[in-house]
Amino acid sequence: SQKIEQNSEALNIQEGKTATLTCNYTNYSPAYLQWYRQDPGRGPVFLLLIRENEKEKRKERLKVTFDTTLKQSLFHITASQPADSATYLCALDVTGGFKTIFGAGTRLFVKA
Amino acid sequence: NAGVTQTPKFQVLKTGQSMTLQCAQDMNHEYMSWYRQDPGMGLRLIHYSVGAGITDQGEVPNGYNVSRSTTEDFPLRLLSAAPSQTSVYFCASRGQRNTEAFFGQGTRLTVV
């Protein structure tokens, strides 16, 4: 079955630095990959969607890359701020896009 | 525009009791899903629906039933609650395949 792996260890970085989170997947070749943010006690909130032929996508301080050969996506937050502290989830659309499966998420802490 | 609304927010059940978690969306979305989230395991798909009258199983469907009689509502039924079903449950909807999902605020369920 499809499997998504995200770094289970929390990522601690200093304010102003670039945070880089990794998402690896196996047993599937998704056409789409998504990233979500989740704050404690809240539901996930959509951030970015990237298609397999896009390789890279940007939105303000966020950048996502998608390497279908490595089966990996990287999520970057540049000029990070304490308000960026949250858990970030990677998600794949499977079964022709009818359902979405999620990784366990990586917790990011940005220290002022 | 309320988005995705889940009720209740909190619930405590005794082992063997049954209950229904409610989910409603007002965005006229065809696709709806139920996830459970446990520490360290991320979001796991329970059941999903691609339209009124059409449902299918996700990764962890045992012990749960769903139905979709209208586009707006997608209730999740626990038939006979077990302590292993203690979790946070999220409902999500999306307008089309391979697009962003909108999540509710979650239902925190404890089975004692």
In terms of topology, how is this protein built?
The complex is a heterodimer of chains A (112) and B (112).
Chain A: E1 3-6, E2 11-14, E3 19-26, E4 32-38, E5 45-51, E6 56-59, E7 62-67, E8 72-77, E9 86-94, E10 99-102, E11 106-111
Parallel strand pairs in A: 2-11
Antiparallel strand pairs in A: 1-3, 3-8, 4-5, 4-9, 6-7, 7-8, 9-10, 9-11
Chain B: E1 4-7, E2 10-13, E3 19-25, E4 31-38, E5 42-51, E6 54-57, E7 64-66, E8 76-78, E9 87-94, E10 102-103, E11 107-111
Parallel strand pairs in B: 2-11
Antiparallel strand pairs in B: 1-3, 3-8, 4-5, 4-9, 5-6, 7-8, 9-10, 9-11
Summarize the structure.
Chain A has 112 residues and is mostly beta strands. Chain A has no helices and eleven strands.
Tell me the total number of β-strands of chain A: 11
Largest sheet of chain B: 7 strands, mixed
Which radius of gyration of chain A do the C-alpha atoms yield?
Answer: 13 Å
Which parts of chain B are unreliable, with pLDDT below 50 for 5 consecutive residues or more? none
Q: For the residues shown, what is the average pLDDT of chain B? A: 94
Oligomer: heterodimer
Which range best describes the helical content of chain A: under 10%, 10-25%, 25-40%, 40-55%, 55-70% or over 70%? under 10%
| Counted beta strands of chain B | 11
Q: What's the end-to-end separation of chain A, in Å?
A: 41 Å
Shape of chain B: globular
Helical run tally of chain A: 0
Tell me what portion of residues of chain A adopts beta-strand conformation. over 45%
